[in-house]
Amino acid sequence: MQIRPKRPTVTVTLPGPTLGVVGGGQLGRMLAEAAAPLGVEVVVLDPTPDCPASPVARAQVEGDFDDADAVHELASRVDVLTFEIELADPDLLEEVQDEYDVPVHPSPDTLRMIQDKLVQKDTLGEAGIPIPEFRRVDDAADLRDAVEEFGSVMLKARTGGYDGRGNVPVTSLDEIEDALEYIGHAPAMAETFVDFVREVSVIGVKGNEEVRAFPLGENVHEEEILRETVVPARTSDEVTERARDVAYDVLDQLDGRGVYGIELFETESGEILVNEIAPRPHNSGHWTIEGALTSQFEQHARAVLGWPLGSTDLRAPTVSANVLGDVDESREAELRGVEEVLAADGVSMHWYGKREVRPLRKMGHITAVGDSFTSTDDLLASARDHVDSLTFDQ
What we know:
This protein is an alpha+beta fold.
């Protein structure tokens, strides 16, 4: 789907404007890397001194994501604001948008809706978008009712969870108290457990009246953490088309420009159900740096500035694989085995600049790109072999 774009909202002249980003982790780092060739400078806000994005950003404002003074300082120094983490405060973003006349994209209302998983699912359900059955959980009685109605459920804290944190399966009534304890008795929702064939995702982009989507990716998880993304997804053309249609329907419900990660379940019958939405570049879109004509990070910069979007076409079959902390306890990060990765044709290394490695913490990723004759199964095996060659063990 391609719609003729309007004139950009920020005039395209070089050097370009300054983009403010709430969050300076690996997403902010890769966003700043992608913005630089466009002549766009980036200022990030992050509580971690010398955060991962700081070596490539123009500057860092040090402060918590909900620190009013820090957010005001950031807004005063930039032309457009965005965020790379859902912990950004939508009320503060709304406030500085009005005070400094600085556009915020995606919109604070979209962030507010997505931050609360129950509100997110209510919004999608009311729009007729296919989602798993769910119900609100405020106490043990609500969770008991959900288990009795659905059988096995996934209990999800409504706010704050990521990478599986804040989520816990509940398969029997005996597990109710432990599950509520696990999420700290936070407001929650219970979603019927989906026996899916695979999880897939679409990285969608909303520009200035221009909407595009990258090819469908297949996500491989272990212990609730994304390990690899395979593109194109190993599924049928019919499922691929259905997933893209659902993704475009989701994008219709979201206000504001930018990149959105849309996670989907494919069921045994080929049905597509929306799992969750991220209002930012997404881990399952990291493959686009080498594997697509325009990366998700460059697209996000273009989109939030109101500039024309780039092509989302696939260069070649691609697999990205996360480099996770293989340690039992936190320690200073020193990655070994990098030479083997760098020596491999078609394999790229991305290091996120985190000084401390923790168990299963995302420290980087590698990307393996094939050609028109390379099978995704072979690429996946290659990517796994190269990740396995990397270690933080001393």
